[in-house]
Amino acid sequence: MKSARIRLFSVKYPYTENTEELFQKAMQENVSFHYQHCPEYRKILDSRKFSPEHVTDENGLEKLPFLPTLLFKHHHLFSIPERKLPVKATSSGTKGSFSRIGLDWSSLLCGFLMVLTTAKWRKLLSFRPVNYIILGYQPNHNNQMAVMKTAFGATFFAPALHRVYALKYQNGTYQADLDSLLKQLIQFSKQKHPVRFMGFPSYTYFLLKIMQERNILCPLPKGSKIMFGGGWKQFYTEEVEKQALYALIKKNLKVDEENIIEFFGAVEHPILWCDCPAHLFHIPVYARAIIRDIHTLEPLPMGEKGLVNLLTPMIKAVPVSSIMTDDIGFNPHCTFFQSLLCNECHNSS
Questions:
Q1: Residue 118 and residue 173 in contact, taking contact as beta carbons nearer than 8 Å
Q2: DSSP secondary structure of 237-301
Q3: Concatenated DSSP letters for 42-97?
Q4: Which residue of 16, 31, 37, 77 shows the fewest CB atoms closer than 10 Å?
């Protein structure tokens, strides 16, 4: 019989209701595995007098000790020996330290099923070849960053004719080359094949600003899409509102808002969160989110802002069952265990 985790990630629709019991079973399996195979994680749970058997309902998941993402930037915890993992990934490490996780084969299967289901729901899968503009890192064997691997993986949603990168690896470091990227974009815009952007919204914005300053318009072929993944990070002082970015895309690339897709994720929480056509993030069946008070860390009612605590049973190699991010968020649309879709999602499902 398949494990609860495999059955959860095999669900055919990413926002199916009534997965509470299956999610709880998958989480209990996952927490038990880490408790048995990661001594450091066992000590944390024992110190809080918490047993994997307590993961039986919503209350148990709320009480499950969470690990802050900062912990993984200074301590590399593994429940499966790192040498046995087929895939390893790190965070970007923009402040000098980085998290490191790994994926075993069963976790890779879960990830593949999740990505396939989510991409199908968002209508990203296509057999039509496309040209990719990647506003991120050029692959290099010295680079294990998850954001690079995610961006590259997104180029398999549709067959790739060409892949061109904003950040090129030269002389042992990455350098932004937006001028060369713009030349490629102009060439792609004159072809019949769709163009897909994938990567950081910051570099997308910088490219669009260059186009605006030079009065360059590149209407993209029909079927083109803009996909965002990652945040603004070191460019946070230049961050613009989403609607302003969407307006630039419409003006310079002639891509409508319905073809703009945003992803959210973290190396410590490798779930593919994808916005809906109304650009709202709903809780997928593969994860749960708890908003916690910034002072007491107690769960908050819907509609109140707090720290975002994310849970998933996906990974067996690293104890990231419940992690605390440093993001502030709230979700007035979803209860803890139920993914309620917006009207536009209901109408399109």
A1: no
A2: GG---HHHHHHHHHHHH---GGGEEEEEEETTEEEEEEB-TTS-B---TT-EEEEE-TTT--B--
A3: HHHHHHTT--GGG-SSHHHHHHSPPEEHHHHHH----SS-GGG-SEEEE---TTS-
A4: 16
- Residue 285, token pair as written in the block: 């069946």
pTM: 0.88
Q: Which residue has the tokens 């429940």?
A: 79
**Which residue carries 């009534």 as its tokens?**
18
- Taking a C-beta distance cutoff of 8 angstroms, is the pair 156, 222 a contact? no
pLDDT per position as a tens digit, 139-163: 877 777 778 888 888 999 999 999 9
The CA radius of gyration of the chain, in Å to the nearest whole number, is 21
Residues recorded for the chain: 349
Q: Are 121 and 13 in contact (CB under 8 A)?
A: yes
Question: What does the alpha-carbon distance between residue 14 and residue 5 come to, in Å, rounded to a whole number?
Answer: 14
